[in-house]
Amino acid sequence: MQLYKTQQLKVYNSLSGKKELFEPINEGHVGMYVCGPTVYSYVHLGNCRTFMSFDMIFRYLKHLGYKVRYVRNITDAGHLEDDSGEGEDKIAKKARLDQLEPMEVVQRYTVDFHQILQKFNFLPPSIEPTATGHMIEQIEIIKDILEKGLAYEVNGSVYFDVQKFNENNYYGKLSGRKLEDMIANTRDLSAQDEKRSPQDFALWKKAEPQHIMRWPSPWGDGFPGWHLECTAMSTKYLGETFDIHGGGMDLKFPHHECEIAQAEAHFGQTPVKYWLHANMLTLNGKKMAKSTGNNLLPNEIFSGENDILSKAFSPTVVRFFMMQAHYTSILDLSNDALLASEKGYNRLMEAMETVLTLEPSNKSDFDISSWKQSCYDAMNDDFNSPILIAQLFEAVKHINLIKEGRETISEKDLQTLQETLNTFVFDILGLEKKQEQSDGSDTLAGVIQLLIELRNEARVNRDFTTSDKIRDQLLELGVQLKDGKEGTSFSIN
Ligand code: AMP
Ligand code: ZN
Question: pTM for the complete prediction?
Answer without folding.
Answer: 0.88
